[in-house]
Amino acid sequence: MKPGLTQVAEAAPAGAPGKAGFSLLRTKPLPGTQQALRPARGLDKIGARSVNGRMAATRLHFALLETVIRPGKEAFLILRLDGGIEASTSNLPQLLWHDSLLAIEAGALCHREVRWQGRIQASLQSVLLTGQGVTLVLPCGWGRSYRLGFSVLHPGLGSTARNLVAARIERCDIFDVPSVQTLQDVFSLTRAEASVYHYLVQGLAVRDIAQLGGVTQPTIRKQLVAVLRKTGCTRQAELMRLASLL
Questions:
Q1: Are 165 and 149 in contact (CB under 8 A)?
Q2: Model confidence over 181-198: pLDDT tens digits?
Q3: Distance of CA 168 to the CA centre of its chain
Q4: Which terminus of the chain has a lower count of CB atoms within 10 Å, N or C?
């Protein structure tokens, strides 16, 4: 019997011959018990408001993230130790290729190959045990991969649950070529310089770029020198590597 409750036995009269009498047992609170329980109920309400507040803070953080991320390139999420998704930016499903080995199944992030799934699990455990971030690159077909970064969840992200890890997924594809506008904006290039850079990343030679632009090859080389200077690169190979990071 719980504290604050008392038993009251009520005997029923015996019934017809051959039928035994029976008793009912009920409980009722002792005087003053309800008043004593009110503070505990108040604490429950405070706790519920705290959880709701933290979840609202989490939603706000992710809403802010979605204003600055590149929707087709990266996504952020909070993972449980088993890979279950606690929260994520809304673009996560669209970020995963339809035939991707990395997928969302039963509300969890998983890799369809056992060995890579094991590495995801090992990375999550490592972050929680050591507090150190982990980066993992997962192949996903020819020329495609995902780069996953795991780190300790910052307290300000709002969840009250334990054993959670913050994660960033970046989609990498060698066929992704930055647009002329992107190159122009990021590196403060002229339109002509950005076009040269764009075609260079596509694999065109100086001769081909000149033919497409209707200009001479020396003009293209002059613009290429300007691109190298503005990007801080010294070789075309560095330009290619730099473009792959956009």
A1: no
A2: 999 999 999 999 999 999
A3: 5
A4: N
